[in-house]
Specification:
Number of domains: 1
Strand order of the largest sheet: 1-2
Number of strands: 4
Order of helices and strands: EHEEE
Structural class: alpha+beta
Distance between the termini: 39 Å
CATH superfamily: Macrophage Migration Inhibitory Factor
CATH topology: Macrophage Migration Inhibitory Factor
Number of helices: 1
Length: 60
């Protein structure tokens, strides 16, 4: 049973997350041959002020 974790900046709509989950599930079933009900997806919305790149907050 594959578990996919997606860490991304917050701000996406529920519809966008739904489409992402559907796409990841389709890819896992096609490429790995696992049934859709075996695919678990965890989406973590992270505020830009909690994410840093090259020593600077992404919110800056």
């Amino acid at each position: 049973m594959p578990v996919v974790t997606v860490d991304m900046w917050d701000g996406r709509t529920v519809e966008q997350k739904k489409q992402l989950a559907e796409g990841i599930t389709a890819l896992m079933t096609t490429k790995l041959g696992v049934p859709p009900e075996a695919v678990i997806i965890i989406i973590n919305d992270i505020p830009k002020h909690n994410w840093a790149i090259a020593g600077k907050l992404a919110s800056e």
